[in-house]
Design a protein that fits this description.
- The complex is a heterodimer.
- By secondary structure, chain A is mainly alpha-helical.
- Chain A has helices spanning 10-16, 21-47, 51-57, 62-70, 77-87, 108-113; strands at 116-120, 125-128, 134-136, 144-147.
- Chain A has a single domain (10-136), classed as lambda repressor-like DNA-binding domains (434 Repressor (Amino-terminal Domain)), CATH 1.10.260.
- In chain A, α3 (51-57) packs across α4 (62-70).
- Chain B has one domain (3-97).
- A 4-stranded antiparallel sheet of chain B has the order 1-2-3-4.
- In chain B, β1 and β2 form a beta hairpin.
- Chain B is globular, with a radius of gyration of 13 Å.
- The chains are: A mainly alpha, B alpha+beta.
């Protein structure tokens, strides 16, 4: 995550900043694994294949699949090859230059289709990955939170 | 327990939170990470899943469309007791469904 272009309250700087380069590397590696699994899950949904079936198709256990999808383990190249064979599909690997405003922004074709997303925890702060927007959240009651939208 | 306190409870939760937020903002799909909860045909609600998956915390989120933007609000923390409690989930969703948000 490239968060230095986003204004974040101090509480969240601690949560969303990496303590060292190794921590960032681990995070980035995990996100690559999730990117792959996200594509696998989409195909599985299209073909109505559940995790148990997927495990059988690639000759592994359901617990291994669970470990992959929960992030306990990361996908390796051999598993990717098994996914390709089992799902009769192919991964397309594209290495793209990052867009300036966000180092890990979504690929171009997805940006066009996906709206900007913001993540908020009421009463605290919010931040987004796409633009320089952040704000304290107003509101104190449980049933009514106010979001201050910054133009 | 407040969401922030829960996240700060352990380094594992902090790492998971970072991953979940990044994951959600990138629009990835994985029901073991962020699962939509279908209530009365609405796809407005979802839960962020912390580890361990069956007994870790859940943060229920409400997604709001604001013009061409999606605001994902972390609305309610739920600490699982190891049971698959459909009733409590329905209760939480009904509760956060009544939350009102006002954009300024």
């Amino acid at each position: 995550m490239k968060l230095n272009k986003t204004i974040i309250s101090k509480k969240y700087q601690e949560l969303l900043s990496f303590a060292n380069s190794q921590e960032k590397l681990d995070h980035d590696a995990q996100m690559i694994s999730y990117k792959i699994l996200s594509e696998v899950e989409k195909i599985c949904n299209e073909k109505r294949i559940n995790k148990k079936d997927l495990a059988e198709k690639i000759g592994s256990s359901k617990s291994y699949i669970t470990q992959l999808f929960t992030g306990v383990k990361s996908v390796n190249i051999q598993t990717m090859a098994k996914f390709e064979s089992a799902l009769e599909a192919s991964f397309e690997i594209i290495l793209k230059q990052n867009v300036e405003y966000c180092s890990e922004s979504l690929p171009g074709q997805i940006i066009a289709q996906t709206p900007a997303k913001y993540f908020i925890i009421p009463k605290d702060s919010w931040y987004n990955c796409d633009t320089e927007i952040a704000s304290e959240i107003e509101g104190s009651t449980e049933t009514k939170h106010k979001l201050k939208q910054v133009a | 327990m407040e969401i922030l306190s829960f996240v700060k409870q352990s380094q594992g939760n902090i790492v998971r939170f970072r991953i979940l937020v990044d994951f959600i903002l990138r629009g990835f799909t994985n029901t073991d990470m962020y699962e939509y909860v279908s209530v009365k045909g609405s796809s407005q609600f979802a839960k962020m899943k912390f580890l361990p998956i069956k007994s870790g915390g859940l943060i229920y989120c409400k997604e709001h469309w604001l013009n061409d933007q999606v605001i994902i609000v972390a609305a309610q923390l739920h600490c699982q007791n190891g049971l698959d409690d459909i009733d409590s989930e329905t209760h939480i969703i009904n509760k956060i469904a009544n939350y009102e948000y006002e954009a300024k």
